[in-house]
Task: structure prediction
Amino acid sequence: MNKILQIILILSLTSSVFSCKKGNIKNLNSITYGSSFGMCVGYCSNSLMISDLKLTFSKSNNGQPAVTKTCSKTISEADVAALKNELNINKISSLPEVIGCPDCADGGAEWIAINADGKQYKITYEYGKAPKELEAAVAKLKVLKDSFKDCN
Result:
């Protein structure tokens, strides 16, 4: 009987260790994704924030004074969970804050900011050149951002 209890204990400890992916986000406060172009006409900067099952999209022009338009809608827990699964804090925290030369020669800049597990991370990179650690999450964020095409 004692041997059986030991085996059950070992199996339960082993399965609990391997069932949790290392680096997964536990408490997600917000994810913000955006892009900007310094030398353009029209709405050159935009951002999408996900917080508390709410999507908030805003876009601004480069004019003086700057004009900002904002739209919002809800997002499902399942969509947030799917996005969270694409983000590995261990990999993200190892990335530099700036990758390449964002918005040099008017190539544009993209960025993602994550506020999770009591820490904040922001990575800015050249437009269209997400680091491989962020590619899947950025692809999902772009789909969400594109759902605001009618934000006027």
User: Anything to note?
Assistant: The beta strands are 28-36, 43-51, 54-61, 68-74, 98-99, 109-116, 119-126.
